[in-house]
Protein backbone atom coordinates (compact mmCIF):
# COMPACT_ATOMS: atom_id res chain seq x y z
CA UNK A 1 0.00 0.00 0.00
CA UNK A 2 1.33 3.46 -0.84
CA UNK A 3 2.06 5.93 2.00
CA UNK A 4 -0.89 8.11 1.09
CA UNK A 5 -3.30 5.18 1.19
CA UNK A 6 -1.99 3.95 4.54
CA UNK A 7 -2.33 7.40 6.11
CA UNK A 8 -5.79 7.69 4.63
CA UNK A 9 -6.66 4.30 6.11
CA UNK A 10 -5.40 5.47 9.52
CA UNK A 11 -7.59 8.51 9.07
CA UNK A 12 -10.76 6.75 8.03
CA UNK A 13 -10.53 3.99 10.62
CA UNK A 14 -9.54 6.54 13.28
CA UNK A 15 -6.59 4.42 14.25
CA UNK A 16 -4.84 7.17 16.12
CA UNK A 17 -2.83 5.15 18.58
CA UNK A 18 0.61 5.42 17.04
CA UNK A 19 2.86 5.85 20.05
CA UNK A 20 6.05 7.84 19.59
CA UNK A 21 9.40 6.25 20.34
CA UNK A 22 11.66 7.83 22.95
CA UNK A 23 14.60 8.08 20.55
CA UNK A 24 12.56 10.09 18.02
CA UNK A 25 11.41 12.53 20.70
CA UNK A 26 14.91 12.79 22.09
CA UNK A 27 16.63 13.47 18.76
CA UNK A 28 14.14 16.17 17.73
CA UNK A 29 13.16 17.90 20.98
CA UNK A 30 16.79 18.16 22.14
CA UNK A 31 17.52 20.44 19.16
CA UNK A 32 15.15 22.99 20.71
CA UNK A 33 16.60 22.87 24.23
CA UNK A 34 17.24 26.61 24.55
CA UNK A 35 13.70 27.40 23.36
CA UNK A 36 12.13 25.28 26.12
CA UNK A 37 13.77 27.28 28.92
CA UNK A 38 11.25 28.86 31.32
CA UNK A 39 8.30 27.51 29.32
CA UNK A 40 4.97 26.14 30.47
CA UNK A 41 4.66 23.15 28.18
CA UNK A 42 1.38 21.47 27.35
CA UNK A 43 1.11 17.91 26.03
CA UNK A 44 -2.52 17.78 24.90
CA UNK A 45 -2.68 14.36 23.21
CA UNK A 46 -0.74 12.23 25.61
CA UNK A 47 -3.18 10.12 27.51
CA UNK A 48 -1.40 7.48 29.48
CA UNK A 49 -3.16 4.69 31.29
CA UNK A 50 -0.80 5.15 34.22
CA UNK A 51 -2.52 8.49 35.02
CA UNK A 52 -5.75 6.66 35.75
CA UNK A 53 -4.00 4.38 38.18
CA UNK A 54 -2.53 7.39 39.95
CA UNK A 55 0.84 5.71 39.85
CA UNK A 56 2.72 8.68 38.66
CA UNK A 57 2.13 11.94 40.39
CA UNK A 58 -0.21 11.15 43.25
CA UNK A 59 2.31 11.37 46.03
CA UNK A 60 3.10 15.02 45.46
CA UNK A 61 -0.08 15.94 47.21
CA UNK A 62 -0.88 18.89 44.98
CA UNK A 63 -2.37 16.93 42.10
CA UNK A 64 -5.96 15.91 42.23
CA UNK A 65 -7.65 12.63 43.04
CA UNK A 66 -8.22 9.76 40.63
CA UNK A 67 -11.33 11.52 39.31
CA UNK A 68 -9.04 14.23 37.96
CA UNK A 69 -9.74 13.39 34.37
CA UNK A 70 -13.45 12.74 34.78
CA UNK A 71 -15.88 14.67 32.61
CA UNK A 72 -13.69 17.39 31.20
CA UNK A 73 -11.89 17.74 34.53
CA UNK A 74 -8.74 19.65 35.26
CA UNK A 75 -5.55 19.42 33.31
CA UNK A 76 -2.82 17.77 35.29
CA UNK A 77 0.07 20.11 35.85
CA UNK A 78 3.54 19.04 36.92
CA UNK A 79 5.35 21.97 38.46
CA UNK A 80 8.96 21.01 38.03
CA UNK A 81 10.35 22.86 41.03
CA UNK A 82 7.79 21.49 43.44
CA UNK A 83 7.61 17.96 42.19
CA UNK A 84 11.02 17.06 40.87
CA UNK A 85 12.00 14.43 43.38
CA UNK A 86 8.74 12.52 43.45
CA UNK A 87 8.33 12.55 39.69
CA UNK A 88 11.83 11.28 39.14
CA UNK A 89 11.22 8.52 41.59
CA UNK A 90 8.20 7.36 39.62
CA UNK A 91 9.42 7.97 36.08
CA UNK A 92 9.35 4.27 35.29
CA UNK A 93 5.56 4.31 35.58
CA UNK A 94 5.12 6.90 32.83
CA UNK A 95 4.26 5.25 29.55
CA UNK A 96 3.94 8.21 27.21
CA UNK A 97 7.44 8.96 25.97
CA UNK A 98 6.75 12.67 25.54
CA UNK A 99 6.05 13.04 29.25
CA UNK A 100 8.90 10.70 30.14
CA UNK A 101 11.38 12.72 28.05
CA UNK A 102 10.18 16.14 29.21
CA UNK A 103 9.98 15.25 32.88
CA UNK A 104 13.41 13.63 32.88
CA UNK A 105 14.97 16.65 31.08
CA UNK A 106 12.92 19.34 32.83
CA UNK A 107 15.66 20.35 35.20
CA UNK A 108 18.46 20.39 32.64
CA UNK A 109 16.30 22.27 30.10
CA UNK A 110 14.95 24.62 32.81
CA UNK A 111 11.35 23.87 31.83
CA UNK A 112 8.89 25.68 34.10
CA UNK A 113 5.98 23.26 34.00
CA UNK A 114 4.58 20.33 32.03
CA UNK A 115 0.83 19.86 31.72
CA UNK A 116 -1.01 16.81 30.50
CA UNK A 117 -4.64 16.95 29.48
CA UNK A 118 -5.01 13.21 29.52
CA UNK A 119 -7.89 12.72 27.10
CA UNK A 120 -8.85 9.10 26.53
CA UNK A 121 -11.24 8.78 23.58
CA UNK A 122 -12.26 5.28 24.67
CA UNK A 123 -14.02 6.50 27.82
CA UNK A 124 -14.18 10.22 26.99
CA UNK A 125 -12.35 11.12 30.18
CA UNK A 126 -9.90 13.98 30.31
CA UNK A 127 -9.80 17.18 28.26
CA UNK A 128 -9.92 17.14 24.46
CA UNK A 129 -7.42 19.39 22.65
CA UNK A 130 -10.44 21.24 21.26
CA UNK A 131 -11.54 22.27 24.77
CA UNK A 132 -8.26 23.47 26.29
CA UNK A 133 -7.65 27.04 27.42
CA UNK A 134 -4.33 27.54 25.63
CA UNK A 135 -3.70 30.95 27.18
CA UNK A 136 -2.16 29.22 30.22
CA UNK A 137 0.67 27.64 28.22
CA UNK A 138 3.62 28.78 26.13
CA UNK A 139 4.34 25.75 24.01
CA UNK A 140 2.64 22.56 22.81
CA UNK A 141 4.69 19.41 22.24
CA UNK A 142 2.91 16.22 21.17
CA UNK A 143 1.96 13.71 18.52
CA UNK A 144 -1.72 14.48 17.82
CA UNK A 145 -4.14 12.03 16.16
CA UNK A 146 -3.50 11.85 12.40
CA UNK A 147 -7.23 11.95 11.76
CA UNK A 148 -7.51 15.39 13.39
CA UNK A 149 -4.17 16.92 12.42
CA UNK A 150 -5.59 19.77 10.34
CA UNK A 151 -8.07 20.81 13.06
CA UNK A 152 -5.34 20.55 15.67
CA UNK A 153 -2.96 22.86 13.79
CA UNK A 154 -5.78 25.30 13.08
CA UNK A 155 -6.55 25.51 16.80
CA UNK A 156 -2.89 26.07 17.71
CA UNK A 157 -2.47 28.79 15.11
CA UNK A 158 -5.74 30.46 16.08
CA UNK A 159 -4.54 30.50 19.69
CA UNK A 160 -1.12 31.88 18.63
CA UNK A 161 0.61 28.93 20.28
CA UNK A 162 4.19 27.92 19.77
CA UNK A 163 4.35 24.24 18.87
CA UNK A 164 6.53 21.25 18.00
CA UNK A 165 4.35 18.37 16.86
CA UNK A 166 4.39 15.26 14.72
CA UNK A 167 2.14 15.13 11.67
CA UNK A 168 1.68 13.26 8.42
CA UNK A 169 3.64 14.20 5.32
CA UNK A 170 0.27 14.60 3.60
CA UNK A 171 -0.15 17.87 5.54
CA UNK A 172 2.19 19.35 2.92
CA UNK A 173 -0.43 18.45 0.33
CA UNK A 174 -3.42 19.68 2.30
CA UNK A 175 -4.70 23.07 1.18
CA UNK A 176 -5.10 24.53 4.68
CA UNK A 177 -1.96 23.20 6.33
CA UNK A 178 0.10 24.07 3.24
CA UNK A 179 -1.27 27.62 3.38
CA UNK A 180 0.28 27.95 6.86
CA UNK A 181 3.64 26.87 5.45
CA UNK A 182 3.28 29.32 2.59
CA UNK A 183 2.42 32.12 5.03
CA UNK A 184 5.42 31.26 7.26
CA UNK A 185 3.20 30.32 10.18
CA UNK A 186 4.51 26.74 10.29
CA UNK A 187 7.52 24.88 8.92
CA UNK A 188 9.31 21.56 9.23
CA UNK A 189 11.50 20.52 12.12
CA UNK A 190 14.79 18.72 11.64
CA UNK A 191 14.23 14.96 11.30
CA UNK A 192 13.38 13.81 7.80
CA UNK A 193 11.13 11.02 9.12
CA UNK A 194 10.45 9.06 12.31
CA UNK A 195 12.38 5.91 13.07
CA UNK A 196 9.21 4.07 14.10
CA UNK A 197 6.06 3.87 16.19
CA UNK A 198 4.83 1.53 18.89
CA UNK A 199 1.30 0.17 18.68
CA UNK A 200 -0.83 -0.26 21.84
CA UNK A 201 -0.29 -4.06 21.60
CA UNK A 202 3.45 -3.46 22.04
CA UNK A 203 4.41 -4.17 18.42
CA UNK A 204 6.90 -1.76 16.88
CA UNK A 205 6.64 -0.70 13.26
CA UNK A 206 10.01 0.60 12.15
CA UNK A 207 10.79 2.86 9.18
CA UNK A 208 13.64 0.66 8.05
CA UNK A 209 11.28 -2.30 7.62
CA UNK A 210 8.95 -2.85 4.70
CA UNK A 211 5.88 -2.29 6.86
CA UNK A 212 7.18 1.06 8.15
CA UNK A 213 5.42 3.35 5.68
CA UNK A 214 3.60 5.32 8.38
CA UNK A 215 6.66 6.46 10.37
CA UNK A 216 8.45 7.05 7.05
CA UNK A 217 5.63 9.38 6.06
CA UNK A 218 5.68 11.50 9.22
CA UNK A 219 7.37 14.83 9.89
CA UNK A 220 7.83 17.24 12.76
CA UNK A 221 5.98 20.51 12.25
CA UNK A 222 6.84 23.61 14.26
CA UNK A 223 6.89 27.37 14.51
CA UNK A 224 9.93 27.41 16.81
CA UNK A 225 13.21 28.69 15.37
CA UNK A 226 15.08 26.18 13.22
CA UNK A 227 18.58 26.91 11.96
CA UNK A 228 18.06 26.02 8.29
CA UNK A 229 15.59 28.90 7.89
CA UNK A 230 18.51 31.28 8.35
CA UNK A 231 20.94 29.42 6.07
CA UNK A 232 21.03 30.61 2.48
CA UNK A 233 21.27 27.77 -0.03
CA UNK A 234 24.47 28.05 -2.07
CA UNK A 235 23.29 28.12 -5.67
CA UNK A 236 25.85 27.34 -8.33
CA UNK A 237 23.62 26.77 -11.40
CA UNK A 238 22.69 29.36 -14.04
CA UNK A 239 19.46 29.37 -15.98
CA UNK A 240 19.43 27.86 -19.48
CA UNK A 241 16.29 27.04 -21.45
CA UNK A 242 17.76 23.62 -22.30
CA UNK A 243 18.36 22.53 -18.71
CA UNK A 244 15.19 24.09 -17.25
CA UNK A 245 12.23 23.51 -19.62
CA UNK A 246 9.20 25.78 -19.41
CA UNK A 247 5.93 24.11 -18.39
CA UNK A 248 3.58 23.55 -21.30
CA UNK A 249 0.51 24.73 -19.35
CA UNK A 250 1.90 27.13 -16.73
CA UNK A 251 4.26 30.12 -16.76
CA UNK A 252 7.23 28.73 -14.92
CA UNK A 253 10.25 26.48 -15.30
CA UNK A 254 10.88 22.94 -14.12
CA UNK A 255 13.72 22.47 -11.60
CA UNK A 256 13.84 18.74 -10.93
CA UNK A 257 16.39 18.90 -8.09
CA UNK A 258 16.33 21.35 -5.18
CA UNK A 259 20.12 21.78 -5.25
CA UNK A 260 19.96 22.81 -8.91
CA UNK A 261 17.80 25.92 -8.46
CA UNK A 262 19.26 28.46 -10.89
CA UNK A 263 20.65 31.49 -9.08
CA UNK A 264 19.66 33.97 -11.77
CA UNK A 265 16.10 33.07 -12.82
CA UNK A 266 13.61 35.81 -11.93
CA UNK A 267 10.32 34.03 -12.65
CA UNK A 268 8.42 31.15 -11.03
CA UNK A 269 10.26 27.84 -10.56
CA UNK A 270 8.70 24.45 -9.81
CA UNK A 271 10.82 22.51 -7.31
CA UNK A 272 10.41 19.13 -5.57
CA UNK A 273 8.39 19.08 -2.32
CA UNK A 274 11.64 18.24 -0.45
CA UNK A 275 12.57 21.92 -0.96
CA UNK A 276 10.45 22.69 2.12
CA UNK A 277 13.10 21.23 4.42
CA UNK A 278 15.62 23.81 3.14
CA UNK A 279 13.29 26.78 2.76
CA UNK A 280 14.77 30.08 3.93
CA UNK A 281 12.03 32.75 3.71
CA UNK A 282 14.63 35.50 3.31
CA UNK A 283 15.96 33.81 0.16
CA UNK A 284 12.74 32.50 -1.47
CA UNK A 285 9.04 33.16 -1.58
CA UNK A 286 6.55 30.30 -1.93
CA UNK A 287 3.96 31.12 -4.60
CA UNK A 288 1.89 27.94 -4.23
CA UNK A 289 1.73 24.31 -5.24
CA UNK A 290 1.41 22.90 -8.72
CA UNK A 291 -1.99 21.32 -7.96
CA UNK A 292 -3.46 24.64 -6.83
CA UNK A 293 -2.42 26.74 -9.78
CA UNK A 294 -4.41 28.13 -12.64
CA UNK A 295 -3.23 26.44 -15.81
CA UNK A 296 -3.19 28.30 -19.10
CA UNK A 297 -3.98 25.26 -21.30
CA UNK A 298 -6.44 22.47 -20.48
CA UNK A 299 -7.57 19.61 -22.67
CA UNK A 300 -9.39 16.33 -22.42
CA UNK A 301 -7.39 13.77 -20.46
CA UNK A 302 -5.33 16.49 -18.75
CA UNK A 303 -5.16 15.16 -15.19
CA UNK A 304 -1.64 16.09 -14.07
CA UNK A 305 -0.88 19.51 -12.62
CA UNK A 306 1.90 20.35 -15.03
CA UNK A 307 3.11 19.01 -18.33
CA UNK A 308 6.46 19.44 -20.08
CA UNK A 309 7.12 18.96 -23.79
CA UNK A 310 9.66 16.26 -24.63
CA UNK A 311 10.32 13.94 -27.51
CA UNK A 312 12.62 11.69 -25.46
CA UNK A 313 11.32 11.46 -21.87
CA UNK A 314 10.50 7.77 -21.04
CA UNK A 315 7.12 8.74 -19.51
CA UNK A 316 5.98 10.99 -22.35
CA UNK A 317 2.49 10.63 -23.79
CA UNK A 318 1.06 11.74 -27.10
CA UNK A 319 -1.79 14.27 -27.04
CA UNK A 320 -3.79 16.02 -29.69
CA UNK A 321 -4.65 19.54 -28.59
CA UNK A 322 -6.64 21.83 -30.90
CA UNK A 323 -5.75 19.57 -33.80
CA UNK A 324 -2.00 19.66 -33.12
CA UNK A 325 0.07 16.71 -31.80
CA UNK A 326 2.20 17.12 -28.68
CA UNK A 327 4.48 14.77 -26.82
CA UNK A 328 4.29 15.63 -23.07
CA UNK A 329 5.27 14.20 -19.70
CA UNK A 330 4.10 15.12 -16.20
CA UNK A 331 6.61 15.76 -13.41
CA UNK A 332 5.73 15.02 -9.74
CA UNK A 333 3.93 17.61 -7.67
CA UNK A 334 5.95 20.80 -7.42
CA UNK A 335 6.24 23.68 -4.96
CA UNK A 336 6.31 26.96 -6.84
CA UNK A 337 8.91 29.43 -5.66
CA UNK A 338 10.57 32.69 -6.65
CA UNK A 339 13.81 34.29 -5.57
CA UNK A 340 13.40 37.13 -3.14
CA UNK A 341 15.20 40.31 -4.14
C1 LIG B 1 -0.84 9.50 17.67
S1 LIG B 1 -1.36 9.16 19.32
C2 LIG B 1 0.01 9.70 20.19
C3 LIG B 1 0.01 9.33 21.62
C4 LIG B 1 1.20 9.92 22.38
N1 LIG B 1 1.16 11.35 22.26
C5 LIG B 1 2.48 9.40 21.81
O1 LIG B 1 3.04 10.07 20.95
O2 LIG B 1 2.93 8.33 22.20
C6 LIG B 1 -2.58 10.45 19.51
C7 LIG B 1 -3.30 10.41 20.85
O3 LIG B 1 -4.30 11.43 20.93
C8 LIG B 1 -5.48 10.90 21.50
N2 LIG B 1 -6.64 11.70 21.09
C9 LIG B 1 -7.61 11.38 20.20
N3 LIG B 1 -8.51 12.39 20.10
C10 LIG B 1 -8.10 13.37 20.93
C11 LIG B 1 -8.60 14.67 21.28
N4 LIG B 1 -9.71 15.15 20.71
N5 LIG B 1 -7.91 15.41 22.17
C12 LIG B 1 -6.79 14.94 22.75
N6 LIG B 1 -6.26 13.72 22.49
C13 LIG B 1 -6.89 12.94 21.57
C14 LIG B 1 -5.50 9.48 20.94
O4 LIG B 1 -6.31 8.65 21.69
C15 LIG B 1 -4.01 9.11 21.02
O5 LIG B 1 -3.69 8.60 22.29
List keywords for this structure.
9 helices; 341 residues; binds S-adenosylmethionine; alpha+beta; Rossmann fold
What's this entry about, in short?
This protein has helices at about 5-10, 20-30, 35, 50, 80-90, 95-110, 150-160, 175-180, 215, and strands at about 20, 40-45, 75-80, 115, 140, 160-170, 185-190, 195-200, 205, 220, 255, 270, 285-290, 310, 315-320, 325-330, 335-340.
- Give the beta-strand count: 17
Taking all residues together, what is the mean pLDDT? 84
Assign the structural class, choosing from mainly alpha, mainly beta, alpha/beta, alpha+beta, or little secondary structure: alpha+beta
CATH class of the largest domain: Alpha Beta
Bound molecules: S-adenosylmethionine
CATH topology call of the largest domain: Rossmann fold
Name the helicity range. Answer: 10-25%
What are the segments in which pLDDT stays under 50 over at least 5 consecutive residues? 5-13, 52-74
Query: What is the overall silhouette?
Result: elongated
Rounded to the nearest angstrom, the distance between the terminal CA atoms is 43 Å
Give the percentage of residues in beta strands.
15-25%
CATH architectural category of the largest domain: 3-Layer(aba) Sandwich
Total domains, how many?
2
Q: How would you classify the quaternary structure? A: single chain
Number of helices: 9
Amino acid sequence: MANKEILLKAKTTKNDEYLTLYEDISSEVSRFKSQLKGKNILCPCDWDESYDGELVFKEEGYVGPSTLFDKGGTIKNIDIKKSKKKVEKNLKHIKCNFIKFLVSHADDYKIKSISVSGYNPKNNKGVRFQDIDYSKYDLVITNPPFSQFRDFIEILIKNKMKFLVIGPLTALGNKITFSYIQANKMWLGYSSQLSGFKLPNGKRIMSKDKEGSIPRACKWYTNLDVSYRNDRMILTEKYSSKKYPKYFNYSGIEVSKTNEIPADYKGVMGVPVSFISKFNPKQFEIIGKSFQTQKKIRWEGDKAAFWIESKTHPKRKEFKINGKKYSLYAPFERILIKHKN
